[in-house]
Amino acid sequence: MIMDVNQIKQALPHRYPFLLVDRIIEIDPGKAITGIKNVTVNEQFFEGHFPGKPIMPGVLQVEALAQAAGVLVTNSGIDGNMVYFMSMDKVKFRKPVVPGDRLVLKVAVSHNRGKVWKFKGEAFVDESLVSEAEFTAMVSSEEF
Ligand code: BDE
User: Fold this and answer.
1) Nearest protein CA to atom 19 of ligand 1, as residue
2) Is any ligand 1 atom within 6 A of the Cβ of residue 95?
3) Atom 7 in ligand 1: which residue has the minimum CA distance?
4) Measured between alpha carbons, how far is 103 from 61 in angstroms, rounded to an integer?
5) What digits encode the pLDDT tens for the residues 15-66?
6) Closest CA to 71 of 127, 144, 121, 129
């Protein structure tokens, strides 16, 4: 394990019920990161999505990928930075994610020119790709 949840909370401002990364298991600083989100039956969103048919919202899977990207930026040797997500493209939700699934969040930097960073994110359960997205963030120490 590279980062536990307390270390992740030092890197990200997100908190319950919106912190969606439990653990970081691999980092290639400035290049790639692998995080884990353990999906439990007790997730607040399962109350409403959907009653009697718990499925993790795909938009929260891409949020989890974006959070993992945020941790990657904070581990890239530039400190005091904020990460502002600006766009997502080529988003695909391929399989339902259900209670008990272990989401493996893989994010790689695909472009980094100054403040503009682009990422490719893929979420897996076991060996299956369940969702994916490309997304862009502005990295800056200034307020947006
Ligand atoms: C979601 C994302 C990617 N691939 C498949 C799915 C999926 O199976 N969604 N299913 C939603 C769903 C919602 C309700 Br309400 C329902 O009664 C049932 Br039967 C469903 O499959």
Assistant:
1) 53
2) yes
3) 96
4) 8
5) 999 999 999 999 999 999 999 999 999 999 999 999 999 999 999 999 999 9
6) 121
Q: What is the pLDDT of residues 18-30, one digit of tens each?
A: 999 999 999 999 9
Buried/exposed 21-57: b ≥16 CB within 10 Å, e otherwise: bbbbeebeeeebbbbbbebeeebeebeeeeeeebebb
Torsion of CA 99, 74, 13, 137, to 10 degrees: -80
- Distance from the CA of 1 to the center of ligand 1, in angstroms? 33
Tell me the catalytic residues.
49
CATH number of 5-140: 3.10.129.10
